[in-house]
Amino acid sequence: MVFGGYTRLLRSTKDSKLMSNHKCPKCGTDMQEGFTLEHRLPVGWFAGKPEKSFLGDIKAAGREHRHIESYRCIGCGYLESYATDIIS
Ligand SMILES: [Zn+2]
After folding, report:
1. How far is the CA of 31 from the centre of ligand 1 (A)?
2. How would DSSP label each residue in 27-76?
3. Confidence class of residue 29 from pLDDT cuts 50, 70 and 90?
């Protein structure tokens, strides 16, 4: 009975999004969670191909927009990014 409860606890911990168990695909070392900044704003991911407005900037209104989670390998510095939660 005690072991059944322990197994459930382990499974829920393993499935948790909060736990970072990313391993580097290049060298197998643990990866560290972080994010990238551009002009002091976190970089996001937008669905579709970029289109320029008549002012010359990139149109992003109405696009699926997601946070980017970035992981850095502690061993070799390799970066791996995931487009995760929808922002708008
Ligand atoms: Zn690595």
Report:
1. 8
2. T--BEEEE--EETTEE-EEESS---B-TTSSBP-TTS-EEEEEEEEETTT
3. very high
Its pTM stands at 0.64
Residue with tokens 């551009």: 38
Residues lying with their CB under 5 A of ligand 1, a single-atom ion: 24, 26-27, 29, 73, 75-76, 78
**Residue at token pair 């995931």:** 82
Record the tokens describing residue 6, joined without a space: 């322990």
Q: What separation in Å is there between the alpha carbon of 69 and the centre of ligand 1?
A: 17
